[in-house]
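Fill in residues.
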């Protein structure tokens, strides 16, 4: 059993059933499988080797799913790119993962070319919506794409299927290496607690390059023969209307999306077909949960996970006791503990670091043996998150040990933003922290000490960052100060600047 076999098995059982709905376009399991086989054969023809890391830079469109499984069919490793990344951020991924080819859209070609120019070597950006007759279209042509499934690459459960990049404590993105076994086990664990079947229709507006969406809104529904509604952009009212028009039954979103939906003006829509919603990616404020449920009548079940865990670790069980404010119980096959600084278990109710173990835990970080050794110890994944467990086995996220800022479910590390601001000629010192935000969960804020005699406006500094980093990483505010509080060793005392880490 591999991820490719998962799709093939569902195709054999649900061949004529629609799996993807995007705008006016529908794709059946059989049509998807055929396109995956063709793409896999074409990529092998173009020279993709077993284990080669191939980038995917696409929004939530059928081509993303085709590219994901097509790379696996060729024996390659999928490396999803955040579609909001700027050329410098893309260049880093291309270099770190030694990527030679990226499956993409014409929309992202200029940025990829700019990233490749800065890299100093050739990168083949292959738009799957290329013009007829171009090499890119040839990739999907019948001439290179036909061939029986048994000619596809033969891979094992232990081979790396996906390299998912997540920011590390230094601010540099790190590629979490997830095998077929990791992702399949997490999909199976989620299946055992989620009361869903082939009659369900999942709404996917969360980006598929994110681990939450990839597992819960792609791999899981495909494993049970369900359908997936793909929405490329989050437009709040439009998303609700699409759910109504398509008769969606399962919703999954990050807390900031639920918050936005509660703030919409009155709108008459029948959302009764939606049986429940799933929340993850960031802590869900209890107030947001209550407001959303009161307005729309859809119960929300909160969970918790990490990219390094494929990603789901816990979930409030839809068929069991839901504890509002908790992130639920560990999934089947997943072990969770709360430990002190010495790695020893703390009693129920006491706060410590959450550590996890199971077949879903990553193999390590690409090219980062030291970083891997820091988080994988004695078979346990150290999350860096502080939490507690109650006597019923439910977990609660209390705070984060890291300086991570979660903006609408997307990870932002202060140092990465600080390094960009520090490059501005007027900036002497800078510190970035997270502030609570009702809509996004958190937003970055920058504290800046200007160089003597230098001047710079908030607008100028924010524009400087916006030109170099994805929009979600740009501080929402800048505060000028005379100095930054520091320890004797020179470390910035972030807690004296503001409520960093609060949710």
């Amino acid at each position: 059993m591999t991820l490719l076999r998962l799709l093939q098995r569902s195709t054999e059982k649900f061949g004529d059933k629609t799996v993807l709905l995007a705008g006016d376009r529908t794709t059946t399991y059989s049509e998807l499988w055929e396109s995956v086989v063709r793409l896999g054969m074409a990529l092998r023809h173009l020279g993709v080797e077993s284990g080669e890391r191939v980038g995917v830079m696409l929004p939530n469109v059928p081509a993303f799913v085709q590219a994901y499984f097509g790379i696996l069919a060729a024996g390659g490793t999928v490396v999803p790119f955040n579609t909001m990344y700027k050329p410098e951020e893309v260049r880093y991924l291309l270099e770190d993962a030694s990527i030679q080819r990226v499956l993409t859209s014409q929309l992202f070609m200029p940025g990829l070319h700019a990233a490749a120019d800065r890299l100093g070597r050739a990168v083949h950006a292959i738009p799957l919506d290329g013009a007829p007759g171009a090499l890119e279209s040839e990739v999907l042509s019948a001439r290179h794409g036909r061939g029986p499934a048994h000619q596809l690459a033969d891979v094992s459960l232990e081979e790396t299927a996906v390299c998912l990049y997540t920011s590390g404590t230094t601010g540099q993105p790190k590629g979490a290496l997830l095998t077929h076994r990791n992702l399949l086990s997490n999909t199976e664990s989620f299946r055992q607690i989620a009361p869903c079947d082939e009659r369900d229709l999942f709404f996917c507006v969360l980006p598929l390059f994110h681990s939450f969406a990839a597992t819960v809104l792609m791999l899981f529904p495909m494993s049970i023969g369900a359908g997936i509604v793909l929405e490329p952009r989050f437009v709040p009212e439009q998303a609700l209307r699409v759910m109504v028009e398509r008769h969606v039954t399962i919703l999954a979103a990050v807390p900031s999306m639920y918050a936005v939906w509660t703030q919409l003006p009155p709108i008459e829509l029948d959302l009764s077909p939606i049986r429940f919603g799933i929340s993850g990616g960031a802590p869900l404020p209890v107030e947001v949960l209550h407001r959303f449920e009161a307005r729309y009548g859809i119960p929300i079940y909160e969970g918790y996970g990490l990219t390094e865990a494929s990603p789901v670790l816990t979930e409030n069980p839809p068929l069991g006791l839901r504890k509002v404010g908790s992130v639920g119980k560990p999934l089947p096959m997943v072990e969770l503990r709360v430990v002190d600084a010495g790695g020893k278990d703390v009693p129920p109710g006491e706060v410590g670091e959450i550590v996890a173990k199971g077949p879903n835990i990553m193999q390590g970080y690409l090219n980062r043996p030291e970083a891997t050794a820091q988080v994988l110890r004695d078979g346990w994944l150290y999350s860096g998150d502080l939490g507690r467990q109650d006597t019923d086995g439910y977990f609660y996220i209390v705070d984060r040990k890291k300086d991570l800022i979660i903006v609408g479910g997307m990870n932002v590390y202060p140092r990465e933003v600080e390094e960009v601001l520090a490059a501005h000629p007027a900036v002497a010192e800078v510190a970035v922290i997270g502030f609570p935000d009702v809509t996004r969960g958190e937003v970055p804020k920058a504290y800046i000490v200007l160089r003597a005699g230098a001047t710079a406006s908030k607008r100028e500094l924010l524009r400087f960052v916006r030109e170099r980093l994805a929009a979600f990483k740009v501080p929402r505010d800048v505060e000028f100060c005379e100095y930054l509080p520091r320890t004797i060793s020179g470390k910035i005392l972030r807690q004296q600047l503001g409520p960093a880490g609060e949710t």
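The first helix runs from residue 3 to 14.
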